[in-house]
Amino acid sequence: MTIQNQGHEHEFEPQYGLPERLPADERILWQGSPDAKTLAVSAFHMRKLVVYFVLLTLACAWPAFEAGAEPWAMLLAVKWIVPLTVVALVSVWLLALMTARTTVYTLTNKRVVMRLGIVLTVTFNLPLKRMSAADVRDIPGGFGDISLALTGEDHIAWVHLWPSVRPWRIKKTEPTLRAVPDARAVAVQLRDAWSQATGLSAVAVAPVEAGRDTRAFQVSPT
Fold first, then answer.
1. Residues 50, 86 within the same domain
2. Domain containing residue 159
């Protein structure tokens, strides 16, 4: 499978989200970017970080509280951890925001194009004919992740795709459209485009259990 990985600064893109203009026989079916808030929670684990730093702050203040110290003494006990907490959380939020703003996913009638990168921009072209499955993970708020299973022996490094990659699939990475709105509607478009590009039928699989990473939707030959 040929997966093109082209460095390209998006400020000079000939067509938004794409490294070059589409051929005459190719058209865009859908284009979108991750939702920043949803990406921060689902990919950067913002809520877990908040809980962690709150517990860490309480742990630092607890000895002074247990000793019956005055409020000012408890504030002195956390004088270092609080600023570090603020810096850490703001940094993660800004990273999620910049990632969402610089990431563009494009579905055409022939491929999925992923433009990734904040400083160094790269573009991955994933032909529909080289996909074996696509899984959808629902995220509260109408968003979702769509993971693409690729055929062949070609391998994209996990670090090159992150965070647009399925969690815990390190050996055989699965490029993932993260935190996209109306993920199930996009998955239907992907299924239809895949069927037309390959000439094969696709099967949709009902969720096994709500709230879990299950194969809620599958694109595969029958």
1. yes
2. 4-15+27-32+103-198
Domains: count for the chain: 2
Q: Are 84 and 189 part of one and the same domain?
A: no
CB 6 within 8 A of CB 123: yes
Domain termination site, one of 98, 125, 148: 98
Per residue in 15-28, pLDDT (tens digit) is 888 888 899 999 99
Q: What is the model's pTM?
A: 0.83
Give domain status of residue 21, yes or no. Answer: no
pLDDT in tens, 176-197: 999 999 998 998 899 889 988 8
The answer to whether residues 57 and 84 belong to one domain is yes
User: How does pLDDT run across 76-122, given as a tens digit for each residue?
Assistant: 767 788 888 999 999 999 999 999 999 999 999 999 999 999 888 89
- For residues 80 and 140, what is the distance between their CA atoms, to the nearest angstrom? 35
**Domain-ending residue, one of 75, 98, 121:** 98
Is 78 part of a structural domain of the chain?
Answer: yes
Give the model's confidence band at 72: pLDDT under 50 very low, under 70 low, under 90 confident, else very high: low
